[in-house]
Design a protein that fits this description.
- This protein has one helix and nine strands, in the order αβββββββββ.
- By secondary structure, the chain is α+β, with helices and mostly antiparallel strands.
- A hairpin with a 5-residue loop joins β7 and β8.
Length: 105
């Protein structure tokens, strides 16, 4: 029983560390995305694709995963955008309510 609790806590800690919640702006061009093959997630779940994220001083690949669907929402994946100065900004993905306008920054 103790082993299961430790494994669960380590898994949650790892997920929290690897799930970006804020945007990042860097000079380096992100690598080309790895193959984005969707998985059969089953009823009530949706595939969220993997992506490259900048952590400290290098890119790390965050694997895609099946997540529980959120009623009345659509998942918008995170994207890297290049600005006019040559910087790259990561906009994290997330759930958007169906019918809401996407803000242009």
């Amino acid at each position: 029983m103790k082993y299961r609790i430790v494994v669960a806590l380590v898994s949650v800690f790892t997920l929290v560390q690897c799930t970006p919640t804020k945007s990042v702006t860097i000079k380096e061009k992100p690598p080309k995305a790895e193959s984005m093959v969707s998985s059969d997630c089953g009823d009530g779940k949706q595939w969220v694709p993997g992506y490259w994220y900048w952590k400290k001083d290098d890119f790390v690949w965050i694997k895609g995963k099946c997540v529980k669907k959120k009623e009345g929402h659509i998942y918008m994946p995170g994207i890297w955008q290049k600005d006019f100065e040559g910087n790259y900004t990561f906009a994290p993905g997330g759930w958007k309510a169906v019918g809401t306008k996407l803000e242009k920054k």
